[in-house]
Amino acid sequence: MSRPAIDFYLEFASTYSYPAAMRIAALAEGAGVTVRWRPFLLGPIFKAQGWDNSPFNIYPAKGRYMWRDLDRICARLGLRFRRPDPFPQPSLLAARLAHVGLDEGWGERFCRAVYAAEFGEGRSIGDEGVMRDLLQGLGVAAEPALARARSDEIKERLRATTADAERHGVFGAPTFICADGELFWGHDRMAEALAWAVRPPR
Q: Which residues contact 33 (CB under 8 A, 6 or more apart)?
């Protein structure tokens, strides 16, 4: 009998996706749930809502709260935290590389490495040099990975994942979607999403 599964929609510029990405593998394993990592881009979805920036920048009070909240969450979980500048970070290259890695078996480790570099060390994830460093740290040959990330195949896959997210009603990250289409938004809804995924059919 196959295990229940959830789709984990993550955006590398997303602050709350950082603790979610660092925790979800262990929590899902404990719950008996398979996680399908879905890197996507929030920019086109925000644009469709009339936003040209992160809502945490558009609404300063909300942004101030988010940074303090993230600081508290990371301290509680024992995660390093350093606010990246600028925010949001350009995430296109990292998202494309993540799709390459998910094909080749190193994608989840890469996703965690990107978040740790961005929100744990304050590094610029839009910098190709940073991406090279992360790939090399994972034992992945950087040049072939970067070449494939620039391919039409991977560009189209990222576009398709972003379109899938929008079609399923995703409006922020992290978002978790169960097999029955039930949607949960936010790091603080991850446990609830995993519990929903394994509940008996009704």
A: 3, 4, 5, 6, 194, 197, 198
- Token pair 């229940």 in the structure block, residue: 4
Using a 10 angstrom Cβ sphere, with 0-12 exposed, 13-18 middle and 19 or more buried, the burial of residue 10 is: buried
What is the third-level CATH fold of 5-197? Answer: Glutaredoxin (3.40.30)
Q: What's the pLDDT at 150?
A: 97
Mean pLDDT computed over 1-19: 95
Question: pTM of whole model > 0.85?
Answer: yes
Which residues lie closer than 8 Å to 166 by C-beta, 6 or more apart?
Answer: 44, 45, 48
SS (H, E, C) the chain: CCCCEEEEEECCCCCCHHHHHHHHHHHHHHHCCEEEEEECCCHHHHHHCCCCCCHHHHCHHHHHHHHHHHHHHHHHHCCCCCCCCCCCCCCHHHHHHHHHHHHHCCHHHHHHHHHHHHHHHCCCCCCHHHHHHHHHHCCCCHHHHHHHHCCHHHHHHHHHHHHHHHHCCCCCCCEEEECCCCEEECHHHHHHHHHHHCCCCC
Separation of alpha carbons 163 and 102, rounded Å: 18
State the pLDDT confidence band at 201, using cuts at 50, 70 and 90: confident
Residue type, 113: A
